[in-house]
């Protein structure tokens, strides 16, 4: 059962990757048609919004732990042996070690960005 879930998720990831690649190649070929036109000049700089690195890191951590929750939901139905329980605890241990690493590294500390140091 777990094998089929993993294969299905792998298939979906590969499918999304190929769809993205297909759309990217399609948009790349129509660059002139998709680019903005202002007095016949090409745009020299990229106009993009700058966002906080801490926000990006927090969103990545949220995605990882959200996937963790979705992987933990079918565990009681799939792994009924002692080896399955040990693998489940090892999985939780590795994720918690990553969380504590991020916590002690200071990536989750938001007060440092707002307090001005003298």
Automatic annotation (TrEMBL):
Signal peptide: none annotated. Its EC number is 7.1.1.2. InterPro entries: NADH_UbQ/plastoQ_OxRdtase_su3 (IPR000440), NDAH_ubi_oxred_su3_sf (IPR038430). The chain crosses the membrane at residues 5-25, 45-65, 77-101. One of its GO terms (molecular function) is NADH dehydrogenase (ubiquinone) activity. It is a multi-pass membrane protein. Its main location: membrane. Core subunit of the mitochondrial membrane respiratory chain NADH dehydrogenase (Complex I) which catalyzes electron transfer from NADH through the respiratory chain, using ubiquinone as an electron acceptor. Essential for the catalytic activity of complex I. Belongs to the complex I subunit 3 family. This is NADH-ubiquinone oxidoreductase chain 3. The gene is ND3.
